[in-house]
Amino acid sequence: MQKEESYIIALIQMACQGTREENLQCARSRIIEASEMGARLICLPELFCSIYFCQQEDPRFFELAEPIPGYTTDYFSQLSKTVDSVLVVPVFEKSMTGIYYNSLVVINPDGAIVGKYRKMHIPNDPQFQEKYYFTPGDLGFQAIQTTVGKIGPMICWDQWFPEAARMCALNGAGVLVYPTAIGWLPGEREGVGAMYLDSWKTVQCGHAIANGIYTASVNRVGIEPNQAGDSEIEFWGHSFIADPRGHIVAEGSGSDEEIIYGKIEPQLISETRQTWPFFRDRRVDAYGRIVE
Question: pLDDT digits over 56-99, tens only?
């Protein structure tokens, strides 16, 4: 196996605005800043081109969707050539009228789209009414080859499922990347808020340990009201990077727009898997009921 080099990953934790152009400009400036700091893999939050519109069911929001390739992917394909970095770019994808996906693309430094992922697990909870907007993904769990190595991109709700993480790891991913939009509903922060946040981080650190892999989750920040103005979500930030031993090596704040940096070291993946040989000791002959 060819030895992979270490590299810097950057997570763009941002507050999302009402117009696509505002968000594109914000993302562009942060990506340029991250590249100047040496980042070679740069990730944006889920659905970053707009407010989180899934707080309510409103057919007008389908107008935000776009094809892949399209305006947003073309925009970042050009930028990737300037910054010489791999970009993970979420997109509200219009496949055809009536078929929409919560997607992302992975763009290499030459501007080429080297992979596309469509969110597989679609939630439907109060103010996270994504089943109204998104068709479940049909591209499976992948390890996408980039200039920095293989990455396993997924989106938000996917991050709670150990089967998804394991599939990406078995396909050769060295880091799981989770663009995210997660936060508290009114009253939750003061009550169960700390528990929810801790559970969110813990399950992803568990994926890192169980698979001997890095995990990186990039969230938005800010308070966004719903269309009626009678409720809101407080996006909790805390974008973080965990190493193969489950240690959080870098974490953002709960409220600030910032860039979170971490180092991806393939050698640590190898060392961890030799110490904890979970893949060796799997009993695939006994796991059949998982898919029943």
Answer: 999 999 999 999 999 999 999 999 999 999 999 999 999 999 99
Residues 6+ apart with CB under 8 A from 96: none
CB-based contact 120:168 (threshold 8 Å): no
Provide the 10 A C-beta neighbour count for residue 84. 12
Q: Domains plus CATH for the chain?
A: 7-282 (3.60.110.10)
Nearest residue to 178 (alpha-carbon basis) of 148, 145, 213, 147: 213
Q: Is 265 a catalytic residue?
A: no
**Strands, E, within the chain: which ranges?**
7-13, 39-43, 86-96, 99-107, 113-118, 124-125, 128-129, 144-146, 149-153, 175-179, 183-184, 214-218, 221-225, 232-236, 240-242, 248-251, 258-264
Choice among 94, 116, 119, 150 that is catalytic: 119
Within a 13 Å sphere around the CA of 217, how many CA atoms are in the beta-carbon half?
Answer: 29
Known active-site residue 46:
yes
Backbone angles phi, psi at 238, to 5 degrees: 55, 30
- pLDDT tens sequence across 11-37: 999 999 999 999 999 999 999 999 999
Catalytic residue among 156, 205, 251, 265: 156
